[in-house]
């Protein structure tokens, strides 16, 4: 039967050995960035949205695209620091987070 001190010494030796091996265990075959993700430039500034080298503002009509869905026509109602509110043709209001535009989950363009 081992004494507690012996167990702690063994555990410390194991942890040191694992720490010395840590940096050498690197997964080589994993890509650094997922190739199917397209990052877009999107930010809000002075109540306007800058998205893929185009400025969008309140009252402007846009076309919203989401992967695997039909494009939606809408009018921008508000642009905040982290979200864009819009009204669809049927009168319903929704919002898009600017981070969703940056990640490419949604895209917008002039109609």
TrEMBL record:
Protein keywords: Nucleus, Repressor, Transcription, Transcription regulation
Cellular component terms per the entry's GO annotation: nucleoplasm
InterPro entries reported in the protein's UniProt record: Sds3
Origin: domain of life: Eukaryota
Gene Ontology biological process terms from the UniProt entry: regulation of gene expression
Record localization: Nucleus
Protein name: BRMS1 like transcriptional repressor
